């Protein structure tokens, strides 16, 4: 909230801010132990081919079950982890866990298994000089190919600087695919899309919401334009946060081939996601 409110908000709400800082510090140190204590786990949200109804892939999403606080939302602890740098070990754990899970699905479900898994990566991870080697090591240790991995990065990561750009190019050279997450919300310029080796555009949920929020013309226009842009640039486009059949149909008409959202499936435990891999068509197409 401080970030959005800018300087004025910091001065005006200082007592509250201080409380926030204290909470964040405590949350940060608890997070530090969370990995060791196995309080973190992953859920997997299906991504569907919205034309055939088939399962296309999954996105790994981290969860934290705190012993006394209960469930802590990633929306709360990921920003804390990013500020403290804890996102680096946390992100390493997520990457390895997700790749191990995909390898298990491959051995359990063979051809029925999804080909690739999506993993969110924070800019702090991309700034680490060893990140490319780490990805290569995890892939080889889990027996996966680079094309089995899609790393989701934000538009601001892409604009971060030379080091991050070089890392992304190296990953792409290796064969790892890159997705631009929350696409349309950042300060991206379209020229970034040409300068940077992106494979997938993930249209942010806010534009999908615009489809049913009184048919908001501005957001509808962005949703439609992103589908076209992806087609022209020969990228794949995923619509995020689909919550209704009306949205699903509209996005399909706009040219989206892939979709993710509570209307089709919430983030699932590994065995639930695995169950979708042994049944052929999974949603109403
Ligand atoms: P994201 O990467 O954009 O992930 C999509 C978020 O939208 C997930 O929230 C998912 O549960 C939610 N979502 C999907 N479909 C719907 C829908 O139909 N309706 C609604 N209301 N929400 C939907 P989640 O799991 O709470 O994660 C929030 C954010 O936290 C993620 O946004 C991502 O930026 C971050 N995050 C989660 N896991 C990781 C991780 O392992 N590493 C990093 N760096 N960030 C992560
Ligand atoms: Mg994501
Ligand atoms: Mg997203
Ligand atoms: Mg999002």
From TrEMBL:
Span of domain EAL: 24-281
Domain of life assignment? Bacteria
Task: Name the chain's protein.
Answer: EAL domain-containing protein
The species this protein belongs to is Paractinoplanes ovalisporus
- Section covered of the full-length record: 484 to 768 of 768
